[in-house]
Write a structure and sequence with these properties.
There is one protein chain. This protein has 3 domains: 263 residues, Rossmann fold; 142 residues, no CATH class; 143 residues, no CATH class. Helices cover 36% and strands 17% of the residues. The protein contains 21 helices and 22 strands. It has an 8-stranded mixed beta sheet with strand order 3-2-1-4-5-7-6-8, sandwiched between helices. A 5-stranded mixed beta sheet has the order 10-19-15-17-13. It has a 4-stranded mixed beta sheet with strand order 11-14-12-18.
């Protein structure tokens, strides 16, 4: 059996050691008095402990006294190898155990600490080991947060909330957290809890990657909480800032201390680089910018309730010998589309390859044929008890197609950003693919076909892709998800006047992008879309605009990337 590497083991347990420079600048803010006591709940490589020692010396604490002020916990035996280099005799101040199973009584001091500081394990719910899930859920059941915290939350959430029970009134916290602190659904409640437990909070998004040597490129959040209040109070003053690198962090903290950072609601748009924010807002307010919902009604695909039963491949369909009236072509997976359009030729290729794209559809048949009845009789009776079928009624449980053929498709969930695909195959779709119906509320010129093509081009641009990241939500292992109401808000840049030359250009760019996408040349396709959508800018300015937008887009995607150690 091959033994896992140290890097694999670290990643499995969410172990990423904090760089000394980061630990130093954060400890310099957190530790303000020689009488402070510090708890590090996952001390790992001891970066924060080394910085703690240095800070105590700096503010005048005797080196021999320092060990009495510092406490910690870690479940990893390797962490204690690092610890012995700093504290050969820890006198019970450091416990080898799961932090979630500890209480203040387990530490020699028996008193709450002035400061809780650290870098908790970054393990998503999906990647948690059984013992990690067991410890997290047992802690949650015994906490006051059981009714408000989603059990799909990542492991760092439990550490941050459990850490509150170790704080003195008026105490401070410093956490190095993953980007999911700002964008994950389960993080919304965590932020609300923290905002009711501190007098003030600062969140700093750091653009430089702290843990790239450990195999991840995700951004980091420095969370600083000051003035702990054991009992929930009104929402505290919450500030946020973006730092291109850790070198900018001390200045940001100093500005916060001087009350020079605006207090506001945390949004992903506000945490992008300033240059990105400025150009994005400028484009968003431009008269040529509209929302996808201004020209399309967006609906979910049809819900059969049993795709495994109702949707077949070509060979399965032939075996049943159904009349043609029962056949409806259906797109079941957005990834089966490759370009800007899905054609009858594309559908035929899928069917020839054995793909399941034929829907057994009784919606157009007043009478059920014998072959159709034999087929329906095979459906398990127990499955008919599902709510989906019960709502339809006894005689209509198999009639679910609304016979509305969409003009285009949009993915419900995706990894690399959404793509607008024109439906030339005239097929419907399952509810994993959104259906778009043209209605042109904004009276965009050019006619339906030209508007469809221009939309497909525009949505692929960096501006629209960034808009999609900001309007969507992160789901599961970093997948971007858009409900119809969210997809409608995605911004597009559309021409308000159409000349003959514009028609020629739209058709040509559309054709080129479709070809590039089918050849999997994504970046080249995006470049074409950018230069078309931003053609109103002089070439030199356009390059700068695209670069600024790409910085924001990269930050958003790295933040939710399934390849990163997702928090």
């Amino acid at each position: 059996m091959t033994m896992p590497s140290k890097k694999t083991k670290k990643k499995t347990h969410g172990i990423f050691y904090t760089p000394d420079q980061v630990a130093t600048l954060l400890c310099n803010w957190a530790i303000q008095s020689p009488s402070d006591t510090v708890l590090e709940p996952s001390f790992g490589g001891c970066g924060f402990l080394r910085a703690t020692n240095s800070r105590f010396v700096e503010i005048g604490l005797n080196e021999n006294e320092i060990p009495r002020h510092v406490f910690g916990c870690d479940i990893d035996p390797v962490a204690f190898e690092h610890l012995r280099k700093i504290y050969p005799n820890s006198n019970g101040h450091f416990i080898q155990d799961d932090f979630l199973g500890l209480q203040i009584e387990n530490f020699p001091s028996k008193e709450n600490f002035s400061i809780v500081i650290g870098n908790p394990p970054y393990v998503s719910h999906h990647n948690m080991l059984p013992d990690q899930k067991k410890a997290a859920w047992e802690w949650l059941e015994n906490s006051s947060f059981d009714s408000v915290i989603d059990r799909r939350a990542s492991l760092w959430v439990y550490f941050v909330l459990h850490g509150l029970s170790f704080l003195k009134e008026g105490g401070r916290v410093v956490w190095v957290l993953p980007g999911s602190f700002l964008h994950a659904d389960y993080s919304n409640q965590v932020r609300k809890i923290l905002q009711h437990r501190f007098k003030r909070i600062l969140s700093i998004v750091v653009g430089s990657r702290l843990f790239i040597e450990d195999g991840t490129e995700e951004i980091s959040i420095f969370l600083l909480g000051d003035g702990y209040l054991p009992n929930a109070v009104d929402t505290c003053k919450t500030s946020f800032a973006f730092a291109n690198s850790t070198q900018e962090v001390p200045q940001i903290i100093n500005a916060w201390e001087q009350d020079q950072i605006e207090s506001n609601t945390i949004t992903l748009a506000s945490l992008m680089p300033l240059s990105t924010q400025i150009i994005y807002k400028k484009l968003e307010l431009d008269s040529c910018t509209i929302s996808l919902g201004d020209i399309f009604d967006i609906r979910i695909g049809i819900v059969s309730g049993a795709n495994d039963f109702f949707i077949m491949n070509k060979n399965e369909w032939k075996k049943h010998r159904f009349p043609n009236t029962y056949e409806t072509l259906i797109l079941t997976r957005f990834k089966d589309t490759n370009g800007l359009e899905f054609t009858s030729k594309d559908m035929k290729a899928k069917l020839e390859a054995g793909s399941k794209n034929i829907l057994f559809d009784t919606s157009r048949s007043k009478q059920i044929s014998k072959s159709a009845k034999r087929f329906l009789d095979q459906f398990p009776a127990e499955r008919l008890q599902a709510t989906t079928f019960q709502r339809r009624g006894v005689d209509a449980w198999h009639r679910f197609n609304d016979n509305k053929v969409p003009d285009a498709y949009l993915p419900y969930m995706n990894n690399e950003g959404p793509r607008f695909v024109i439906n030339k195959a005239r097929a419907t779709s399952t509810n994993s693919v959104h259906r778009l119906f043209y209605f042109n509320k904004q009276k965009i010129p050019g006619g339906k076909e030209l508007i469809l093509k221009q939309t497909a081009i525009s949505l692929l641009s960096t501006f629209s892709q960034l808009s999609a990241e900001l309007e969507g939500r992160v789901y599961g292992a970093g997948v971007l998800k858009h409900e119809p109401s969210e997809a409608k808000k995605i911004k597009l840049i559309m021409k308000k006047k159409i000349t003959h030359q514009d028609v020629v250009e739209i058709n040509e760019v559309y054709k080129q992008i479709d070809k590039k996408l089918r050849e999997h040349k994504i970046e080249e396709a995006r470049d074409l879309a950018d230069n078309f959508s931003l053609s109103g800018f002089p070439i030199e300015e356009r390059v700068k605009v695209i670069d600024d937008l790409l910085k924001g887009l990269a930050l958003m995607r790295i933040n939710r990337s399934p390849k990163s150690w997702k928090g």
